[in-house]
Amino acid sequence: MTDIPLFEALAAGDRELLLTELRRRRFKKGEVLFHEGDPGDTLHLIDRGHIAIRTSTPLGDVLTLSVLGPGDVFGEQALVTADSRRTASAVALEPAETRSLTADRFDRLRNEEPAINRFLVEVLAAQVRRLSDQVREALYVPAEIRTLRRLNGLASSFSRPDQTCVIPVTQDDLASLAGVSRPTANRVLKRIEADGVIALHRGRLEVLDRDELSRRCR
């Protein structure tokens, strides 16, 4: 946990102080960590597994906004705004563990040691960078390349040494992650499946040739 990049802005003593306040939580595959609209009072740092962040549209469709893995942080708004509400739901895609930090504990820490605020600044700055990258890509990168890049990013996160890379997301998930329509995502996936790059299964995608997938993202 100490190798999380967001901790690098903290001095060693402040890092250890923050770590003492984190509480380990475990979740089963498919378990909902919190629902959209729930009170938001806890930040999570992922120690193991992957978490999908999802929201609902006015028409009732469910969109996957991001898939987060070890080292990622979510729920940061809980440390910023009092009485905040969750703007999306979080669901474990596989057995997962997080280290959680409540707003009350964080407020106590920052009062005792103001330098702890640097952690929150880094968390928010990382989120701004991610959102800026997504906007830039949506404006200037073709839909097909966006789809392949999201798939390649997922493959990097889910890959394990000497094991097949299986990603437990649907084509709908990938489409919303890439900001494209489902027919577009399906067309891209069918094309690279025919070329032996991936295999499509119900509720999951299997990457067979990581090198070729990476090459096609350029």
Could you explain how this protein is built, in words?
- Helix content is 40%, strand content 26%.
- The chain is of the alpha+beta class and 218 residues long.
- It folds into two domains: 5-137, Sandwich (Jelly Rolls), CATH 2.60.120.10; 142-216, Winged helix-like DNA-binding domain superfamily/Winged helix DNA-binding domain (Arc Repressor Mutant, subunit A, Orthogonal Bundle), CATH 1.10.10.
- It has a four-stranded antiparallel β-sheet with strand order 1-10-4-7. A four-stranded antiparallel β-sheet has the order 2-9-5-6. The chain has a three-stranded antiparallel β-sheet with strand order 11-13-12.
- Strand 5 and strand 6 (62-68) form a beta hairpin.
- Helix 4 packs across helix 5 (171-178), helix 4 crosses helix 6 (182-194) and helix 4 packs antiparallel against helix 7.
- The two termini are 32 Å apart.
Keywords:
elongated; Jelly Rolls; alpha+beta; Arc Repressor Mutant, subunit A; 2 domains; 218 residues; 7 helices; 4-stranded antiparallel sheet
